Automatic annotation (TrEMBL):
Reaction catalysis annotation: alpha-D-galactose 1-phosphate + UDP-alpha-D-glucose = alpha-D-glucose 1-phosphate + UDP-alpha-D-galactose
Domain Galactose-1-phosphate uridyl transferase C-terminal: 217-368
EC number: 2.7.7.12
Phylogenetic placement of the source organism: unclassified sequences, metagenomes, ecological metagenomes
GO BP: any one term: galactose catabolic process via UDP-galactose, Leloir pathway
Molecular function terms, GO-annotated: UDP-glucose:hexose-1-phosphate uridylyltransferase activity; zinc ion binding
Entry keyword Cell cycle: no
Family assignment from sequence similarity: Belongs to the galactose-1-phosphate uridylyltransferase type 1 family.
Pathway(s) this gene product operates in, as recorded in its UniProt entry: Carbohydrate metabolism; galactose metabolism
Organism of provenance: freshwater metagenome
Protein name: UDP-glucose--hexose-1-phosphate uridylyltransferase
Length: 370
């Protein structure tokens, strides 16, 4: 693994080893010298978990019992994602940083040892597997009190480059099949650390939602010869009523059949399979629309909205001819003090019911004064 790497946008990545052998990667723009050692005592890392097949739906479930003891909503003065200062020794040894990515201390998925293969799916008799993969944490800023919407355009550009870099590098691992960068914000959706950060999950299998999107995209391509997501974008542009923001490289819209009170898809107009396919022009234009979308979301009710923001992209080794990159932001808040709970129909049956029309939430987002 290269210790230093030059990236587009004037960004340099520097890798350093943490006390327990994990890797931390600094993404910098000012030529910083990253030499601060991790002064914490060495702790044993958890063993790899189990991977079990639910044969009723042919879906893999990772068992990671070691995560029960992970840190939960610590006060700011004990935040493990802040820079190291004084006696507070954190996951980031340096006293300041721009964007950092490091291997998760309590990962759901871990790199396997030796030869590894996903067990064959044979119903109830499917072999027990190991939860192979990679889980990384990405911190957006050293400032504990900030949120994505508070970042500068320059910082969002660095963040995007970090997502691209990790997608490119993780794709080279033979046991990785799909890479999903995402951000959770808000205790309402289960956030355990309030510092502005996201995660990157690299799976050893194709996750269920991606499998469903792949099946739909292949069927559409076979019957029409066209790319399904490209046609979705064309419809949104043609109908116009669900678009909330756009520039010459990106489009942000509320999908026609949204599942959540506030759901936004942000997609490049230049059709690509994954983050690594974004052009320089795409990368330069992303911060503008990303920040606008997040400010509009928080502006709807004038409060910080709990959300999940996840990148959907083609798997590493399949479906790259039919699946297309997009950023999906979903919020369960339907009004101040009211959440949409995923109850019987949604959680038990997987059948979503929306209490408001997508055109209504799109109008509310558009009407926000920035």
């Amino acid at each position: 693994m290269a210790q230093s790497k030059k990236l587009p946008g004037g960004i340099t990545r520097n890798n350093r080893e943490m006390a327990d052998g994990r890797t931390i990667r600094y993404y910098d723009t000012a030529g910083q010298n990253r030499t601060a050692p991790d002064m914490r005592p060495v702790e044993a890392q958890p063993l790899i978990g189990e991977l079990r097949l639910d044969p009723l739906v042919n879906e893999w479930v990772a068992m990671a019992a070691h995560r029960q003891g992970r840190i939960f909503l610590p006060p700011k003065e004990l935040c493990p994602l802040c820079p190291t200062t004084g006696e507070l020794l954190t996951e980031v040894p340096e006293s300041d940083f721009e964007v950092v990515v490091f291997d998760n201390r309590s990962p759901s998925l871990r790199p396997p040892t030796g030869d590894w293969a996903l067990p064959d799916q044979v119903g109830p008799d499917t072999d027990l597997g190991t939860a192979a993969g990679k889980c990384e944490v990405i911190c957006f800023t050293a400032d504990h009190g900030k949120s994505f919407k508070d970042l500068t355009a320059k910082r969002v550009r660095i963040l995007l480059e970090a997502w691209i870099d990790r997608t490119e590098e993780l794709s080279q691992e033979p046991y990785i099949e799909h890479i999903a960068p995402f951000e959770n914000r808000g205790e309402e959706i289960g956030v355990t650390l309030s510092h502005p950060h996201g995660q990157i999950y690299a799976y050893s299998y194709v996750p269920p939602r991606v499998e469903k999107m792949l099946t739909a995209a292949r069927k559409y391509k076979e019957s029409t010869g066209k790319i399904l997501f490209d046609e979705v974008l064309a419809r949104e542009i043609r109908e116009d009523e669900r678009i909330i923001a756009r520039n010459d490289r990106w489009l942000a819209f509320v999908p026609y059949a949204s599942r959540y009170p506030f759901e936004i898809h942000v997609a490049p107009l230049h059709s690509v399979a994954d983050l690594t396919g974004l052009t320089d022009s795409d990368r330069e234009a992303f911060p503008e629309i990303a920040l606008e979308v997040m400010k509009r979301l928080d502006g709807v009710f004038g409060i910080e909205m709990a959300y999940i923001a996840a990148w959907h992209q083609a798997p590493v080794r399949t479906g790259r001819d039919v699946l297309r990159l997009h950023w999906q932001i979903t919020s369960v808040r339907r009004a101040p003090g009211k959440l949409k709970y995923l109850a019987g129909s949604e959680s038990a049956m997987g059948a979503f019911i929306m209490d408001m029309r997508p055109e209504q939430s799109a109008a509310q987002l558009r009407e926000v004064k920035l």
